[in-house]
Design goal:
heterodimer, A: mainly alpha, 10 helices, 0% strand, elongated, B: 77% helix
């Protein structure tokens, strides 16, 4: 171990994760959220192994059948099993939520770090661009991007990710600006630690908590955005199932088959409320003022 | 005050410039050559060259951008491929419909969100507070297009109380117009009400713990006077600012709400334009939305200063 490596994380920081976990475990809302997310994630991951019909298998003799022992949640306009499509649809929704927020965090974190840590001309341009993007409503930007990129789940995820990115740039930049003037960062710099090491060891750990909270809450927004784009026909394309596209079809059969519209909506609502509950719980658990 | 407004307008200019670059760049994302699509099946080289010259596509991209911005500043956002009408006229025609929807949604949001927020703050940590928080969390988590579908199913299909879709201009038949807009306005106002409730609660709680509130109570002022005259009047400032910031959410929500209830407004315009590949309309709507959002922010900032005597004095 060199002398440079001995510059340590500030006192108290190492205990923060376990203290946060204890507070999170004590928060009933956050635990409910975590349970809901775990349940749907498990369904999505185990979809290929579950004894359910092919989600795209049509049956002309089972068109718009009400829930029964054979089809627990009923069938749709092409006789497809709704439960099976719901479970496979969970993959699209959760994937869209996580991947689009992953895109937003990856780019937002990098640009926020560059802007906040290095300053200079980058800190003149990046915040201006961020403000401009924040002036455009999230969903309208996503619709416009998805329209120009072409309708597909991948393009919807890119569109949602790029639309959500400005929040992460602003958040990261703000955190970096407040952390980089701390004594321990000044100390690390004065003993000649490289920028990459300072960022990795002192800046990123301090940026992590607010980014995690924001990312969890943004996954909820992204899942609704993906469902909205699929509902408009700009996300997942038929016959592949997604909750949004199932609702798009269901709205044409409201009086004949109301169950077609009921289940996908409940699923979106539950998953979104799960991420919102977990996000709120994480915010409380990671807030140093409530330590 | 005027110099403050002037400064705020100047700050908005670079933001608008960047938005215009983004909106212009959107058309460059389109796969393929747009001229080939316009030239028809023959793809006659002379026609292709004529179209390139006509739409200035042979010019360098920065020149194309400057020409586009110049036209936009003169109110020329291009011509709709579908209707052959100027984009600005189309937007102008649809805007009153969305404004009516927005005004009714905000009214719903204020009537539900603010009293709920006040009650939740005053009755902190009671059953009422928990119920209000659960309602707000549900309001934020429910997809508004699904809420719209469920309301159509219940209120229109099952009960037959309100029309499921359609639009009646307000000045033609005010009663019928309000009837057709009730459900869409509730759907759109629901998430806003939840946001308003949370912010009202938090603003009220921070004022309720102030020293002057304790003094007012010690002087024997009635509880309702403490809540409404002393607390709410001071808590209303961040709520006013937030309401302007919710404008963006309102327009985004209108896209889906108008689609579900078949309301011929601003939101339906962009969705229809997406499907007819009417890209000039999509660009026009995005640009106008961003400009509207920036103007609303500006108004919120000015109101904030006007309503806050300390900030007014500092100018």
């Amino acid at each position: 171990m060199t002398a440079l490596d001995q510059v340590d994380i500030p006192p108290g920081e190492q205990r923060a994760p376990s203290r946060a976990w204890r507070k999170l475990k004590a928060n009933r809302g956050a635990l409910v959220g975590l349970f809901i997310i775990a349940f749907f994630t498990l369904l999505a991951v185990l979809a290929p192994l579950l004894p359910i019909p092919d989600p795209n298998a049509t049956s002309w003799s089972a068109i718009r059948k009400a829930p029964s022992a054979l089809n627990w949640l009923g069938t749709d306009d092409l006789g497809r099993d709704i439960l099976s499509r719901m479970i496979w649809g969970a993959q699209a929704s959760l994937l869209a939520g996580v991947v689009s927020v992953g895109i937003a965090v990856a780019i937002g974190l990098a640009l926020g770090l560059i802007s906040g840590y290095f300053g200079g001309w980058t800190d003149q341009i990046i915040p201006r661009v961020t403000e401009a993007f924040l002036a455009m409503p999230f969903l309208i930007t996503a619709i416009a991007l998805a329209a120009f990129l072409g309708p597909s789940l991948t393009n919807a995820m890119i569109a949602i990710g790029l639309s959500a990115m400005p929040v992460f740039i602003r958040l990261t930049r703000g955190q970096v600006l407040s952390v980089k003037t701390e004594d321990y960062v000044e100390g690390a710099r004065s003993i000649g630690l490289r920028h990459s090491s300072i960022i990795r060891r002192y800046i990123l750990p301090n940026v992590f908590a607010p980014i995690l909270v924001q990312a969890t809450l943004t996954i909820a927004t992204a899942i609704i955005a993906e469902a909205s784009l699929s509902f408009l026909g700009l996300g997942q394309q038929p016959p592949a199932p997604s909750w949004g596209s199932m609702l798009n079809v269901a709205k044409n059969y409201l009086s004949q088959a109301p169950w077609m519209a009921l289940w996908p909506g409940i699923a979106i609502f539950l998953v979104v409320i799960g991420f919102n509950l977990l996000g709120d719980g994480l915010r409380d658990a990671l807030d140093p003022r409530e330590a | 005050m005027y110099s403050y407004i002037g400064k705020r307008v100047l700050v908005a200019i670079p933001t608008l410039l960047i938005i215009s670059i983004f909106v212009f760049s959107l058309q460059k994302l389109l796969p393929g050559d747009p001229v080939l699509a316009l030239a028809g099946e023959d793809r006659d080289p002379q026609t292709i060259e004529y179209l390139r010259e006509k739409y200035h596509l042979n010019d360098p991209v920065p020149v194309q951008y400057i020409r586009w911005v110049g036209s936009a500043l003169q109110g020329d956002l291009g011509i709709s491929l579908k209707t052959n009408q100027p984009v600005l006229k189309l937007i102008g025609d649809k805007l009153p419909v969305t404004i009516q929807l927005a005004v009714m949604s905000i009214a719903f949001a204020f009537v539900i969100g603010i009293p709920m927020g006040i009650l939740a703050a005053v009755k902190k940590n009671t059953a009422l507070d928990y119920i209000a928080n659960v309602v707000a969390l549900s309001g934020l988590s429910i997809p508004n297009f699904w809420l719209g579908i469920m309301l159509i199913l219940l209120v229109s299909v099952k009960l037959g109380w309100l029309p499921a879709s359609g639009y009646q201009p307000f000045f033609d038949d005010p009663l019928r117009s309000i009837q057709t807009m009730l459900m869409p306005a509730f759907v759109l106002g629901n998430a806003l009400a939840a946001t308003l409730m949370r912010h009202t609660r938090s603003a009220m709680l921070s004022v309720l713990s102030a020293d002057y509130i304790r003094t007012a109570r010690a002087k024997g002022v009635s509880e309702w006077a403490v809540v409404l005259q002393h607390t709410f009047r001071n808590a209303v400032l961040p709520i006013v600012t937030l309401s302007a910031l919710l404008f963006g959410d309102l327009l985004a929500g209108a896209v889906l709400t108008e689609q579900i209830f078949t309301i011929p407004g601003f939101g339906k315009l962009i969705v229809d334009a997406v499907f007819t590949r009417d890209y000039a309309v999509v660009q026009g709507v995005v640009l106008c939305t961003a400009v509207g959002f920036i103007v609303m922010n500006l108004i919120a900032d000015v109101f904030y200063v006007l309503l806050n005597p300390r900030m007014r004095a500092a100018l």
